[in-house]
Amino acid sequence: MNSSRVTEQKIEGDGSDRLVTLGRISGLHGIQGWLKVFSDTRPRENILNYSPWYLKSSQGWEKWIPSSGRRQGKLVLVKLQGCNDRDAARDLMDADVAVYRSQLPATPNEYYWADLEGLQVITDKDVDLGKVSHLFETGANDVLVVQGERERLIPWVWEQVIKDVDLQQGRIIVDWDPEF
Fold it and tell me: Where among 54, 76, 104 does a domain terminate?
């Protein structure tokens, strides 16, 4: 099982569906409002498969429609409807790019990071270790950051460490020494 690098953002007043961050606006391209986007999707250009986007700026979340885009190196170039010049694009710099969780496809035998955050982590010997605060990549494997009576870093290694994920029950079962 793999996890997909996507992190959750809360939206005020909307508990039925949450926004999930897929990347961020990282630069400007040209004078016609094109933006450079650092995408956390795999492959990076998959971020273009989602619409609408919600961009978080100092004014809060705003809805935008991508009209065209393409991958360029490690970034994705995108043109948003209504963003027609460099000044308008500059106003969107450093904004998080998010979509509603319901827009993401089902992932049999895989989990989005956003779905794991907040789950209770329990050892296979029924010791409560705390809740998943967030995850990060190390190159070798992803790591769960678990906050309980202390912080624990637990590698996402399916079958060896991660024994079960039950999204309905809100828990992850791990083979982990509570003293570690």
Answer: 104
